[in-house]
Amino acid sequence: MSTKKCCTCNKIKETNEFNKNTRHKDRLSSYCRQCSSEQWKRYQENNLEKEAGRKKRWYAKNIKRRSKTNRAWRGKNKERQAGLGKLWREANRERVIEKTRRRRTIQANLPFIWDEIIDGGNVKPNEKRRIGQLRVYGLGRSLRFEGII
User: Fold this and answer.
1) Torsion angles phi and psi, residue 3, rounded to 5
2) Which residues pair with 3 in a beta bridge?
3) Smaller CB count within 10 Å for the chain: N or C?
4) pTM score > 0.85 for this model?
5) pLDDT-derived band of residue 53, with 50, 70 and 90 as boundaries?
6) What is the domain partition of the chain in residue ranges?
């Protein structure tokens, strides 16, 4: 193996300790991986708002990709996912109780909510089937109904 000198730490290291960079003559970065990592961490710490915006844009742009990746991960890690869910519910007990309370309130008042939707003209009358089959989304301030299951 050949060696190369890092421009930051000035240490001579093996070439496998450098990232690839096709713009350089030797096709390797000027900085070793360790220095690059430290430099990137410092940049992120010093530019929190800029990084938050960048991540937000990436998430918005890659919704389908994230969904596919997450679905694949959950399929491969069912036991771990169940354990993580249990830990989250234990750590966020108040949120779980509040969400359950809201869901049960909506279910108890579903006939009244359904009548308001029909009267408001948001749902065609021929879609009115069994009330218990209505799927309710968004248990926050606004409710969004997605038709009959």
Assistant:
1) -125, 165
2) 14
3) N
4) no
5) very high
6) 3-46, 92-148
